[in-house]
Specification:
There is one protein chain. By secondary structure, the chain is an alpha/beta fold. The chain contains 7 helices and 6 strands, in the order βαβαβααβαββαα.
Length: about 200
């Protein structure tokens, strides 16, 4: 079985966003492993309108061309890490919109979260866990939370890899993600094989 492919989704599109830093840091950590492969996926490359389809993409193809491109991209992956900015105690609207647009691509795949902002993005991550479950994603227990002081130091040039406890948390998160991604990929492959044989 090929090693699972993980998307690191940058969940903000604002000018001057912080999300590029945790995405690059977690990819560098992930690239040191031999059990998963990683690709950064930037929502700036998928400028979808606010969800305005007549029916859910779970039941019918989307009419919007960019949304279809997004759905095709998401289908390539076996699991996801979302960078989660916290705005007003919640995840970004653009990330929620992207989640809504790709219903089928999430099913039976694991999700992990790198939160940042107020209380390390913890409230945004908690809401994303609930959304993930409704989308039939399987959230891992461990998340990474980057607090305001660390963000300020990172903006001034400090590498997130210099915070040892962040690396420790990320390793635990990636270990859980690897286990679930491998198990769920195996199960999906078995289902697909069975469906073809039927």
């Amino acid at each position: 079985m090929a090693k699972p492919k993980i998307a690191i989704v940058i969940g903000s599109t604002r000018p001057g966003r912080f999300g590029d830093k945790p995405a690059a840091w977690i990819k560098a950590l992930g690239d040191q492993r031999n059990d998963l492969s990683f690709e950064v996926v930037d929502l700036r490359d998928y400028p979808m309108p606010l969800f305005d389809e007549e029916v859910s993409p779970a039941w019918a193809p989307s009419k919007n061309e960019v949304a279809r491109k997004w759905q095709d991209k998401i289908a390539e992956f076996d699991g996801f890490i979302f960078t989660a900015a916290e705005y007003n105690h919640a995840p970004t609207g653009v990330l929620k919109n992207a989640l809504d647009y790709a219903a089928a691509g999430w099913v039976n795949k694991p999700a992990a979260f790198v939160g940042y902002g107020g209380v390390g993005g913890a409230r945004a991550v908690e809401q994303l866990r609930l959304i993930a479950i409704e989308l039939q994603l399987a959230p891992v227990k461990t998340a990474v939370h980057i607090m305001w002081p660390m963000m300020m130091e990172a903006r001034e040039g400090k590498d997130l890899a210099e915070f040892g406890f962040l690396n420790d948390g990320a390793k635990g998160m990636l270990d859980q993600l690897a286990w679930l991604a491998t198990a769920l990929k195996s199960a999906r492959d078995a289902d697909e094989k069975q469906a073809k044989a039927a």
